[in-house]
Design goal:
Elements (H helix, E strand, L loop, with lengths): L21 E6 L5 H14 L4 E6 L1 H6 L22 H4 L5 E5 L3 E3 L3 H5 L8 E3 L10 E2 L3 E2 L11 E5 L10 H6 L2 H5 L9 E3 L6 E2 L16 E3 L16 H20 L1
Parallel strand pairs: 1-2, 1-3, 5-9, 10-11
Antiparallel strand pairs: 3-8, 4-11, 5-8, 6-7
Helix pairs in contact: 1-7
InterPro entries: Nucleotide-diphossugar_trans
Protein name: Nucleotide-diphospho-sugar transferase domain-containing protein
Length: about 260
């Protein structure tokens, strides 16, 4: 059952509670602390439903024994694999979202939860993306593989039987191909979300006078304005405006 009365969408048959905040797990990397804070601010500012935003911090996961994987040479962030702990961290209940920290939300998260369909194990934007750059962010290696960026923003049906596969053991030992391509699922168990919810800066295009192409969440996947090399990327002004607003609010709270 999917609720559509403005409350959080959950799967009531697997222990979900419609009155609980919608859990959003955001990938955290110490190099991108500001990106995380701005992403968080952009969600909270626009959300008309209760949400709980939880950073996925590798250091905390290691202390708690949930993550012990050694970092590989092609892992551009600390959450390359820890993201797949999302259903486990949500106690395999209800729906939850994982999102990279390099997102800027421009729309109400309720619009996204309204798209939830309980027949799917996960839902995501199904990009066809093959970047031309060889590096990204602050010099990290840019890799190309099938279903690239699908895992950067995922709605997880955490109580779906198939997602029980995503144990800490699997997140720590399985290959990148298995995890990032969702190989524990059949294709028809992966629902599709409009690309505007994972609008790839430098790849996707907004068409003038076509609101269906206007971004609802910008993904600075090549690198955002918090990196010197990408300070002039597309939509940099929107991120910088959000950052300034976040900074002012933070300063105001400190002064109070």
């Amino acid at each position: 059952m999917t609720l559509s009365n403005g409350k959080v969408h959950t799967v009531t048959s697997n222990g979900g509670d419609a009155n609980k905040p919608f859990k959003i797990f955001v990938g955290y990397d110490p190099r991108e602390d500001l990106a995380y804070e701005v992403c968080r601010h952009s969600i909270l500012k626009r959300s008309s439903i209760p949400v709980e935003i939880i950073p996925i911090k590798q250091s905390d996961l290691r202390k708690s024994g949930l993550y012990w994987r050694e970092r590989g040479q092609f892992e551009s962030t600390e959450f390359s694999f820890s993201r797949f702990l999302t259903p486990c961290l949500a106690n395999y209940e209800g729906w939850a979202m994982f999102v990279d920290c390099d997102f800027l939300y421009l729309a109400d998260i309720k619009e996204l939860t309204d798209l939830i369909n309980d027949k799917y194990a996960i839902m995501c934007v199904q990009h066809d993306y093959a970047p031309k750059e060889t590096t990204k962010m602050d010099g990290a290696v840019q890799t190309v593989y099938p279903r690239k960026n699908w895992s950067s923003m995922v709605l997880y049906n955490c109580g779906h039987p198939k997602n029980r596969v995503l144990t800490p053991e699997v997140a720590n030992t399985q290959t990148g191909a298995f995890l990032h391509r969702f190989q524990w699922l059949e294709d028809d168990e992966i629902g599709s979300i409009p690309f505007v919810w994972n609008f790839l800066e430098g790849h996707n295009k907004a068409v003038e006078n076509d609101s269906m192409t206007f971004p609802k969440a910008i993904h600075y996947t090549r690198g955002g304005p918090w990196f010197a090399a990408w300070k002039n990327c597309e939509f940099a002004d929107l991120w910088l405006n959000e950052m300034e607003e976040y900074m002012k609010e933070t300063k105001k709270k400190v002064e109070e």
